[in-house]
């Protein structure tokens, strides 16, 4: 949970009341962010349950609506209630809850909430300070607003999917088509952007004393995460595709894993040359100007052969990262989930579970 140290470690959003009338990943991940910061979040599910209840992973031998790891992860720190929003009684219950809430998160197709009498304009009559967030694939208005979409559609509509796999993966498998990112990346990106938008709207409410209707397009949230791709086209006319690579550096194998080297600044490049035992590279004209637009610093766009030692002589990445970070190289290990988990336990001083 996020707390405020200046207020005696009180939760940052303590006292905030949130209704989460949303399912699957995007809306619930936004609600989870707010709950983790101390808000009182009430999840509203239809009688059939949230879609995420029926999606894995499930513990071995325990497939069912109460054991989905995806659902449990997304809905910690929340209260829960079942309401049939398609019935008159359910609509009245929702209106009553919304009249006392600070925030409502909903993910119904455009027009559905309005048709039920639960749209923003209807609810703000009883609660002028309500911050009402609508999460849909393509927003409330525009040519695609009525289109249906799943996570896969949203991810590729945002542009980032066309660049995957890139760099080393593209070099190894140049004929492979675009692939999606792991998990529900576009959904989580939307939830993150939604959480930021809600906090901003609450700050505005503190000044204006009025709520607001936030229209969040998942496509636009995905595009925001691919901002470098858009900026390169706007600034240089460069179309980033799957052949993209780092100006210098990239992903390299070590004896026990991989590291990513990204020397974006001159000082990083100089430190990397020192670490490779080839300091003379830093003064060569073809590597002289990191301020040039992408692709112009290396002669004719040709990659330079600055490869390091053979496989058997490669360092272990843990020692290499520690050494090269000390001397100023921008380097990081590509960690597996088991390494991240164990590293976090070590950081907080927790005990590694048996088995």
Helical percentage: 25-40%
Tally of strands: 11
Instruction: Note the total helix count.
Output: 13
The Cα radius of gyration reads 25 Å
* Low-confidence sequence ranges: 290-312
- Taking the alpha carbons of the first and last residues, their distance comes to 27 Å
How would you classify the quaternary structure?
single chain
The main sheet comes to: 6 strands, parallel
- The percentage of residues in β strands lies in 5-15%
User: Helix and strand string, N-terminal first?
Assistant: EEEHEHEHEHHEHHHEHHEEHHEH
Mean pLDDT: 81
The geometry reads as: elongated
Give the neighbour order of strands across the main sheet: 5-4-3-6-7-8
> Which class do the helix and strand fractions yield?
alpha/beta
3D structure, described in words:
The protein is α/β, with parallel strands linked by helices. The chain contains 13 helices and eleven strands. Helix 2 links the parallel strand 4 and strand 5. Helix 1 packs across helix 8 and helix 8 crosses helix 9. The protein is elongated. The chain starts with a strand and ends in a 7-residue tail after the last helix.
Summarize the structure.
The protein has 355 residues and is of the alpha/beta class.
Task: Provide key terms for this protein.
355 residues; alpha/beta; six-stranded parallel β-sheet; three-stranded antiparallel β-sheet; 11 strands
